């Protein structure tokens, strides 16, 4: 698995557009690459499968913090190995995802999941992984949980704050707390 300090892989994938008023079914897709949010931090989180039980809880929780991530000059990308048409169908049929404000990216060929080393070999799907990537496309945080265990997006936001502080941050540090001073 790629980890902290590694360059995030190049990619070119299809995503479902975010939609405040729901999906625009006449033009629901756009292309995403590693340079789509050039100069910004990226939070790329993967879930195993659409139409499952833990995954929408995480997607919704990340989406609720979307403006907090944007305030920190970061963009969110949610990714699974399902195709873009499955993403659209899930959005249309899941009340909590209908007006989702973050892109749902399709890694149907599993190229990004494989390049990152997070493809679950037994299941053939992306593991439940999260990466914080700096504006130079360097991975600064990598986090993977078991397929059955959801993540805490507030913790990802806390880590982004710590990384952006460029300071020594103690355990449980939160934005506004004191940094560790050496010497």
Automatic annotation (TrEMBL):
The enzyme's E.C. designation: 1.11.1.26, 1.11.1.28
Compartments (UniProt record): Cytoplasm
GO cellular component: cytosol
Domain Thioredoxin, chain residue ranges per copy: 2-165
Lineage: superkingdom: Bacteria
Disulfide bond in keyword set: yes
Record's keyword terms, sorted: Antioxidant, Cytoplasm, Disulfide bond, Oxidoreductase, Peroxidase, Redox-active center, Stress response
Main subcellular location: cytoplasm
Any one Gene Ontology molecular-function term assigned to this protein's record: thioredoxin peroxidase activity
Reactions catalysed according to its record: N(6)-[(R)-dihydrolipoyl]-L-lysyl-[lipoyl-carrier protein] + a hydroperoxide = N(6)-[(R)-lipoyl]-L-lysyl-[lipoyl-carrier protein] + an alcohol + H2O; a hydroperoxide + NADH + H(+) = an alcohol + NAD(+) + H2O
Enzyme class: oxidoreductase
Subunit-level organization: Homodimer; disulfide-linked, upon oxidation. 5 homodimers assemble to form a ring-like decamer.
Function, in words: Thiol-specific peroxidase that catalyzes the reduction of hydrogen peroxide and organic hydroperoxides to water and alcohols, respectively. Plays a role in cell protection against oxidative stress by detoxifying peroxides. Together with AhpD, DlaT and Lpd, constitutes an NADH-dependent peroxidase active against hydrogen and alkyl peroxides as well as serving as a peroxynitrite reductase, thus protecting the bacterium against reactive nitrogen intermediates and oxidative stress generated by the host immune system. Does not however seem to play a role in detoxification of isoniazid.
Name of this chain's protein: Alkyl hydroperoxide reductase C
Organism field: Granulibacter bethesdensis (strain ATCC BAA-1260 / CGDNIH1)
